[in-house]
Design brief:
The structure is a single chain. The chain has five helices and nine strands. By secondary structure, the protein is an alpha+beta fold. The protein has a single domain, classed as Roll (Thiol Ester Dehydrase, Chain A), CATH 3.10.129. The protein starts with a helix and ends with a strand. The chain binds decanoyl-CoA. The site of decanoyl-CoA (MFK) has 19 residues, from helix 5, strand 4 and strand 7. The site of decanoyl-CoA has 19 residues, from helix 5, strand 4 and strand 7. It holds the Pfam family 4HBT. Belongs to the THEM4/THEM5 thioesterase family.
């Protein structure tokens, strides 16, 4: 495992320290990070190819993933924000947390969604900068990917929603740089509440690493979200 991580660090150049002279504005805004890159190991590539094959008949769809929110997404969410200008400013500068670490050292993942079965699958390779207990992934990193995959499943099946409740059982530690599969499904909908659950398994499905249940609540267009740091609220303005 440690050898595999060291190889990965060399491949991605992470051992050389931060890149100099790279300004924030020069970042490529529209790179789809859910496509294979040199840090992906063989297992990751194999699973990716398997899901791409499943996507050929249209039952599964690969979900593109960007570091920065495409500004077109403002249209999807601006109804919830009283200050559209500030929202646009924030969306153009803020980075999606699971995409904020360098290639190969943090969260490498690709998600696929099945609209007929209301399922989302995430193939996830957790890099060496996500260490918790020596040699294993940090629980917060696992929770991040679980929340993100459950969230995609909730949003794609029910609309714009936020995590209201998340329960995780961590059953086995996940080795750093290994590949796991997060399998989510929408269990039921009650009013604005979406109940979504998942399990995290090894590639051969023999090891159950974690299980989670969650409640997502669809945002109410009558309530507004204020994103000013000093006055953050999500409440009914009427
Ligand atoms: C990689 C790609 C990633 C893309 C996906 C990203 C996924 C990431 C998602 C997140 O991490 S979101 C960040 C973490 N979550 C938050 O910050 C949410 C903070 N909480 C809130 O803003 C509000 O509490 C919330 C929007 C969840 C609900 O507020 P509302 O005012 O809309 O709910 P309301 O109080 O009217 O309750 C509506 C229903 O939800 C229920 N409910 C509310 N909060 C709950 C809760 N915490 N647990 C269980 N149920 C809850 C509530 O009981 C009620 O049920 P009933 O309709 O049966 O009466």
């Amino acid at each position: 495992m440690l050898r595999r991580c060291a190889r990965l660090l060399r491949t991605t150049g992470a051992l050389c320290g931060p890149k100099r002279g790279r300004s924030f504005s020069s970042e490529v805004l529209h790179v789809d990070h859910s496509l294979p890159n040199p840090s992906w190991n063989e297992d990751m590539r194999l699973l990716f190819d398997q899901f791409m094959k499943k996507s050929e008949d249209g039952s599964w769809k690969r979900l593109p993933s960007y570091k920065y929110n495409p500004t077109e997404r403002i249209e999807d969410v601006k109804i919830f924000f009283p200050d559209a200008k500030l929202l646009k400013e924030q969306m153009s500068q803020a980075q999606l947390f699971p995409r904020s670490l360098g290639e190969g050292v943090g969260f490498e993942y690709a998600m696929f969604h099945n609209h007929v079965e209301d399922r989302t699958v995430c193939i996830f390779q957790g890099g060496p900068h996500l260490q918790g207990a020596p040699g294993f992934l940090h629980g917060g990193a696992i929770a991040t990917m679980i929340d993100s995959t459950l969230g995609m499943c909730a949003i794609l099946t029910g609309g714009i929603a936020m995590t209201a409740n998340l329960n995780i059982n961590f059953r086995r530690p996940i080795p750093l740089c290994s590949v796991v599969v997060i399998n989510c499904q929408l269990d039921r909908v009650e009013g604005r509440k979406l109940f979504v659950s998942c399990n995290v398994r090894s590639m051969d499905e023999k090891t159950l690493y974690s299980e989670a249940t969650s409640t997502f609540v669809k945002l109410d267009p009558k309530k507004k979200i204020d994103i000013r740091a000093s006055g953050a609220f999500y409440t009914n303005l009427q």
